[in-house]
Structure formats: C-alpha cells, structure tokens
## 1
Amino acid sequence: MSILVIGLGVIGTTYGYLFQKAGHRVEHLVRKSSARAAAGSLEVEILDGRTDPKGSLSRDQYNVHHRRRTSYDLIVVSVPQGRITEVMADLRTGGIQGPVLLFCGFWGEREELDRLMAGRAVLLGYPVAGGSITGERLTCCVFDHVMLERRDRARFPGYEQVEALFGSCGIGLEHPHDMLEWIWLHMAINAGVGAVAAMYGDVEDTTRTAEQLMGSSRMLAQVVRAIRETSRIVASRGVDLKRYRGELLVYRLPTAVSAPLMKRMFARNLLTRRIMTLHGNTADLLFVCRTVYEQGRANGVSAPIFYRSYEAAQDKATRHDQHLPGMVRGRNETA
C-alpha cells in the first residue's frame, strides 16, 4: 500500500516504521515550520509486544520519506483533535487524495466528524502504542493489536486493505460495539488517570509522576473513583455503558480490590508501564482532562473527585508556566 502519515509524531511514526518494515511505501507530510521538517532518518528503540507479551527490545533505523505524491491508498491522521481541521485543510490545499484512518482521540459527534472530512472516506481507529521523540531518536512501545471500527458500521470502501495492512505487520484488530463511543470512554478513562496523577505529581516530570502513581495503592484508589465519575460523563452523552463492561470491569470493583489489582498489573506488565512513563506531553494530557471536565460541567454531572483533581492540576500547570521566563514559555507554546 502507499501510505501518507501526517507529521512525524510518535504514533504516526511508530506505525509508519512498522508499515515500512512490512514492505509498504510510507511517506510523511511534515509542516515546513516543524523542527523535523528536514529529518531524513530516525533512530528507533522499540519495545515490541507483537510476538512477546512482555515486549522484546530492539534498535533500528527508520528512513523518513517526505511526501512526493498526490494520491495514496491510505492517509493516517494521528494528531490532537484541535489540529484535525488544519490537517484536512492542508490536504485539500495540496490536492492530496486518499481515504483517512483517523487514529486519535476525537470527542466530537459523528456529524462534526463528517463536516471535518467534507466527503472524504474516513475510518475510525485507536492506536495501542506510545513513546516519545527526542532529537532524532524515537523511543516507543507497541502492543499486538489496535482498535478499529467494525466493518458493518464503517462507511469505508477500502476496509479489507486496512485489515490486510495491519495483518502484514503482525497486528491484530479489536472491534468495540461503537468505535466513537469507545474513544470517548477511553479519553474519559485517560482524563481520570491524568487529572489525579497531575494533582499529586509534578506536571513537568511526567515520567516520575507516572512511576509514583503506578506504585501507590492510595493514588490508584483515587484514580478508580475519578474514572467512575468520568465514565458517568460519557453516559450523559447517551452512551449505554453496559456495552463496555469489559473496559470498565476493574473500575467497578471495590477500591480495596481494584487498586491493588492495578498496582500488580503495572508491576508485571512492562509494556503498560513503558507507555505510562513515555507519555510526556503535559499539554496534551491536560487538554483531554479539560475536554471531559467541560462536558461534565455542561451536562450537570456530579464528579467531585475528578473536578477537584483537574482544577488542582490545571492550577499547578498555570503557576508553573507563570514562573517560566517569557522566551522559554513562548518556545514551549510554539512547539
């Protein structure tokens, strides 16, 4: 397949690397203003869970091919929700054709998504991977599956090609009842985790904060309570949570049971620990928290633990930014 990946971010680059290794032609559309606009290659350190559930560590080189064509079999868009409009405008302006795999969190309704795509075929998915890019080095981990919209719910003519694409990389597919609802629920779970972690930890040292969270039954118990609340925010949008019992089971258990279970899981599952410690984008984490927070407030949902945690985390982040020199603050915001 010919694949265009938008940008050189962690998720798109991780899967772009896997697609390229499987023999597909992968190109990247990178903004001229990006610090990686001229990148020709990246060092890759990957903890790979596709064949080993504990993850096997390897190092490699990824050759970055920049966009040369105007038509692709698939365009992979894995960007923050606030950038989707900009990305679609860039594709239209550049005359770039091809169906889109929207591979990220999206809190909007289906009608909003249709407006953003403006008639372009779109398939909803969600990655099960994570990492960070520092300089010319990608450090990442990947699981053996991704989440993908069900065939009978997707309006996507090239569905079989996408199935074959992931299959060629040794990645299985899991199909929730409704992909958009599942994404909302996953974002709500992340918001519960992120708000509590940021309230207790250092908003600028996310690795240390994640380690602190994963090792504390007390903090994990608070996470469970916050996630119970954020899941109710999702329910307030008309989602039947009974359809997602598997995703929510551990959070419905008494905290005296669920918190130790989560602590044990983090201690034993290196891949999950790795994702938690590598996700270092504080602004992205707080954006997800704020999105869920604003929805809960607007819908009148009672969620005192989550609201209090997010407000404390946001206050901490604001105070941190105010103490930074103006030039440093500007550089961070631009990046």
## 2
Amino acid sequence: MSEVLSELARVLEARKQAEPDSSYVAKLYAKGLDAILKKIGEEATETVMAAKDGDADKIVYEVADLWFHSLVLLAQQGLGPEDVLAELQRRFGLSGLDEKAARDRR
C-alpha cells in the first residue's frame, strides 16, 4: 500500500479520538455518518464537474478530495485503504463483465 495512504489512514484513525474543535476531520467525525456522506456526495459532484471541464489539474484536485473523504468514511466505519486494495486485488484479472455478473447474482 502506498506510504501516503498508510500515513493518512493512521492520521484519520488518530483523529477519531480528537476533540471536534482540534481538526477538520475530528469535527466531521463528531457530526456523524450523514455529514461524511454529504461531503462524499459533494466531492463526487465536483469531480464530475471538473472532468466535464476537462482541466487535468482540477480533476486531480477533486479526485484527491473525493479519495480523502472516502478514506474518512472508511476509518469511521472501522475500515481502511488496505480493505479496498484487497478488494481491488481480488478483482484483478477478472473480466469486468464477469465481476459485475457475479455481483448481480448476489
């Protein structure tokens, strides 16, 4: 796993114990799941808008925000980037069509 993801996961986990007024992430955790989900929705929309504009720098910036808030959600749920990477590894080499068909059968 990327060193950046590992370090960020450690920081996000530590923020779960922090006072809400001590950091943005601690405040987001204190507001709860709905606030985290709202931020992910906002960042997803901003990512789409950046892609529609075709500005590479804006796309990278907005995807970074989306990934960041997704990592906050993972930590809030007791998960981490390693869980997502393990799922991506599991899917690696599978046809996307086969993977989707397997999901549809669940």
